[in-house]
Design goal:
The complex is a heterodimer. By secondary structure, chain A is an alpha+beta fold. Helix content of chain A is 27%, strand content 27%. Chain A has a ten-stranded mixed beta sheet, with helices on both faces. By secondary structure, chain B is an alpha+beta fold. At the A-B interface, helix 9, strand 15, strand 16 and strand 17 of A face strand 2, strand 3, strand 5 and helix 4 of B.
Chain lengths: 444, 125
């Protein structure tokens, strides 16, 4: 059986819209069987979809779905490259309907679309067998979605789907699904290899020079036009990571090793729905320009439970920022911060507060400012207030205190921005598999 | 043999990842020669001290000698994580570079090996 290629056209909701086309062109040029994957669901993205659906029933899928697919849909259909994405989010059928309309508007033949459902477990989380590692939800539940495995995706491809639309699935399943379909993989080490492929691809450019450049230390060519990744996979499990032709970025031992360990905890036991992946024996070898061979993934049976992310209402976040620059700027910024603290002292019971001075390595610091930082006192600083509250008005009032500094604060304060946003908090639940029933159906 | 004290950034690169309130930082040697320095000096205790202001519940270090890499797992340091933190970087994406400020004592020939590895990469880009 031939080598199979898996491309990636998005690593998160909000990724570059022009990334997929060079990947698809490269897959076509290689002439091997291939699939295209899009990963657009972070932990809370799905809850945002549920909230969007409350105000508009046909919403709830990836908002940028059509701009993502428009450049590549026709090419993928005409070259029989299936598209697999979790861009269905909270409304896979809505996403499928939108893709059908897109195909029609582009004058394409009607694609065969499969939707994978059953990840929504809002009806199952009250079962006494559910395990709550961080405790039970302390606020109203917005969404509860189990991470489905690759089985339903492989099943959809076996039904002849041109496009597979999922909600929550384990990110690596987007690549493992087509590999199971292509190679008939089922042994633990095979599932481990496919999961590793998916893990390396799931964040898009993070394996091809994104989230990597450190000028003078780790240089990346043409960051403005990073090529997105392609995995070349052999039936025996050999993997080469490369990227789209005629693009920027790079694939080398360093980019692959950083992504290999990204969001990994115990490297001997990366828990996925289909397999427990052990990467402690993995080797990473450069075999050519932008070509890295990965070998040595080992698999063991997966956990008995499936993980679900449960999203709950998280109150409101008020934010405000103001800038100070030039002579004595740090002292003026500190006076602004002290003034904000004094003004908000009375609301301590209802508002959780943090005030940073950006320019003093605030990103490294704690809510209490326990670390601190040093800088040129005559440089440029931005005071940032963040105020979390269950009460929207309290969060707004706190953010407005930054606005008041224009006329009532230290000299030369400018560039105020304020915002108040609702928050979604998340926690994990572990569900016995009997509580989760994945379903595959063809639409269109 | 002379040695110098340098930030970890001189001999290793790093990447942060988050899951909830847990942070992991992969620390990877620029050259194989630097691997023993990582093993000896990038310890759980020293990382816990570097992140003390974030009050880690635990710090666990996994060694991956095949990759000349350490995976550091810090529990409870993201102030609630991306969906709850008040700080700008609730993911902890910037914190790999806090880890890279850790002072390490490095024999000059190892520092030179890392500088050569970095320089060779620069020449090929």
């Amino acid at each position: 059986m031939a080598r199979f290629l898996v491309g990636n056209g998005a690593g998160f909701s909000g990724d570059r819209l022009d990334a997929a086309l060079p990947v698809v062109r490269t897959l076509i040029a290689r002439g091997c069987p291939a699939a295209m994957t899009f990963e657009t669901l972070a932990e809370r993205t799905l809850a945002l979809g549920v909230l969007a659906r409350r105000s508009r029933e046909e919403a709830g899928f990836e908002p940028m779905l059509l701009p993502l697919l428009r450049p590549v849909l026709g090419l993928c259909l005409s070259h029989r490259i299936p598209i697999i994405g979790n861009f269905g989010a909270a409304n896979p059928r809505g996403a499928a309907a939108a893709i059908l309309r897109l195909a029609e508007s582009l004058g394409l033949a009607t694609p065969r679309i499969a939707v994978v459902e059953g990840d929504d477990v809002r009806g199952a989380i009250d079962d006494p067998a559910v395990i709550w590692p961080e405790g039970r939800p302390a606020a109203p539940v917005i969404a509860a979605n189990a991470y489905l495995g690759a089985g339903p995706i492989a099943e959809a491809l076996a039904l002849g789907a041109d496009i597979v639309v999922t909600g929550r699935v384990a990110d690596p399943a987007l690549a493992l699904g087509p590999l199971i379909h292509a190679f008939g993989w089922s042994a633990p080490d095979e599932l481990a290899a496919g999961t590793l492929v998916g893990h390396l691809l799931e964040c898009g450019a993070q394996v091809t020079g994104g989230y990597f450049a450190d000028p003078g230390v780790k240089d990346v060519p043409d960051v403005d036009r990073l090529g997105f990744p392609i995995a070349e996979v052999e039936p025996g499990g050999a993997i080469v990571i490369t990227k789209a032709d005629h693009t920027g970025g790079l694939v080398d031992r360093r980019t692959v090793t950083e992504q290999l360990l990204y969001e990994i905890h115990d490297p001997a036991a990366y828990l996925a729905p289909d397999v427990t992946l052990d990467i402690t024996g993995v080797t990473v070898e450069e075999i050519g320009r932008d070509r890295v061979r990965i070998a040595g993934a080992r698999g063991r049976p997966p956990p008995d439970t499936l993980k679900a992310t449960v999203s709950i209402e998280g109150g409101f976040l008020g934010e405000g920022e103001i800038s100070y620059a030039g002579p004595n700027a740090l002292a003026r910024a500190r006076l602004a911060a002290e003034t904000l603290r004094a003004r908000l002292a009375a609301s301590a019971g209802t508002v959780r507060l943090r005030i940073d001075i950006l320019g003093l390595q605030a990103s490294f610091d704690s809510d209490e400012g326990a670390r601190g930082g040093a800088a040129n006192p005559d440089g440029e600083f931005r005071v940032r207030l963040a105020a979390a509250s269950a009460d929207r008005e309290a969060a707004e009032a706190a953010a407005r205190e930054v606005l008041h500094l224009y006329c009532c604060g230290p000299a030369g304060g400018g560039g105020v921005r304020t915002a108040v946003t609702p928050r979604v908090a998340t926690l994990s639940a572990l569900l016995p598999r009997r509580l989760v029933s994945p379903r595959v159906s063809l639409v269109g | 043999m002379s040695a110098v004290i340098v930030p970890l950034h001189a001999i290793a690169h790093a990447r942060s990842g988050d899951k909830g309130n847990r942070l992991n930082i992969a620390v990877i040697a620029h050259a194989p020669e630097a691997w023993p320095v990582l093993l000896d000096q990038v310890t759980e205790a020293r990382i816990a001290a570097l992140f003390a202001h974030r009050r880690p519940a635990s710090v666990t270090r996994h060694a991956l000698p095949n990759l000349f890499a350490l995976n550091l797992v810090l529990d409870g340091v993201l102030e609630g994580g991306v969906n709850a933190a008040l700080g700008l970087d609730g993911h902890g994406k910037t914190l790999s570079f806090l880890a890279l400020t850790l002072p390490v004592t490095v024999p000059r020939h190892i520092l030179q090996a890392c500088a050569s590895a970095i320089g060779a990469r620069r020449g090929s880009v």
